Carbohydrate kinase (Spirosoma montaniterrae), 485 residues
Amino acid sequence: MPTPVIAIFDIGKTNKKLFLFDQHYRIVWERSVQLPETVDEDGDPCEDIQGLTNWVLETTEIALALPQFTVLALNFTTYGASFVYVDARGQQVGPLYNYLKPFPDAIRERFLQQYGPANALSLQTASPWLDSLNSGLMLYRIKYDKPELFQRIRYALHLPQYVSYLITGQIASDLTSIGCHTMLWDFGAGRYHDWVVSEGLDRLLGPLFPADEGMDATQPKPEDAEPNTARSLRVGVGLHDSSAALIPYLASFHEPFILISTGTWCISMNPFIETEGTGPALTADELQHDCLCYMHYRGKSVKASRLFSGYEHEQQTKRLAAHFGVDVDHYKQVRYNASIINQLQEAAQPVHSESGSITGPAKMMSLKESPFGQRDLSRFANYETAYHQLMLDLMAGQVLSTALVLPHNEVEQPAVTRIFVDGGFSQNPLYMNLLAKAFPQVEVWAASVAQATALGAALAFHDQWNPQPVPPNLITLTHYQRLHR
């Protein structure tokens, strides 16, 4: 008897994956690939959208034909901030521009003259000004910088919805993608921002479709199957990956918590803070420190803050390896040493930046680099001590970043009782012990979830295909208690 499963595409910038989950949300089959990038018409690197399209269609066909499984449903989660464009005939047109693509100064100035100031727009849309990383600004840029392409565009689909469209042929938008630092959504008003309507861009966005509801698609029957054996398949509209990664935690825990999802970016998310009335979801100060809002798949805003410390850790461990003559991953052998931490904190020295100004861990406000990059490595006796200093510097930024999503008034907002950490830093004993020391008032847990983003996309779709209850043991936890001197 074939095992009933749900198929989930999890498409990242580097790795593209397809998983089959059984009804207990165990991974029973998977396929992954790394696709080479291409370049757009300006020579900037970008996703090879045709290569991705071919891989999705081919891999879907393979999964549906597996005799040991019956695929009952299909859903998608991908990186965000990226539009795919479709013409009036339903054909993909133009590149899938990279969200790091340089943004023209003239287009930025034109936009701000029409719809600025930037701070007011960021407050209303809960989106820091991020140029091409604001997908709404990218669409505006195409309208005025690439008018020939713009004339060909009938629909702009965020990447999760484009991948869904490949299977269903249905145009749709999803709140988790629209509400993710796109500058498209007015969080206070609960609709597209006025500038989007003024530019007519709302007409290019498909109708909003609930992420926990399904569309019907006909599953192709194998060539050797009996006639009339094609089955209907429930297919989701797809979710933005950061929103999807939160879903296993919301399914498992009901007391207020913060999730720090760690990777290249360390994103602190609080889904339990309520915004007041129709006012802005964030303050101007929070936006200055890279706060933003994601949208939960059921329409609720999720307050978040971002820190570029995963990338910074990668760069600085390369620097440490070169200086001390060790392997790049030598940090994995370093264990937390409270004595070294205490010595470094007691002898803390200010860091002089190239501009001559003095910075220190307590004043580190940069979200893209830590003070460690300006430290003289020759002052450290060994790799172990230097690495402890790196983690102290990174943690200073993490504390500032995570504190931004803690409730400021626990009379009006629910108190956070736990901090969960998933991703790479959850396996780093220095990071976890320093975090527990920094937040002694809450429980700090390292969390392990097999493919959390893909699992979230499956759980969002649970009612569409799975008659079993959601299992209670989806997440493995390790408690870190504050270590005293």
Observations:
- The two ends are 59 Å apart (CA to CA).
- The domain at 3-239 is CATH 3.30.420.40 (Nucleotidyltransferase; domain 5).
- Confidence is low (pLDDT under 50) at residues 352-367.
- The longest helix spans residues 383-403.
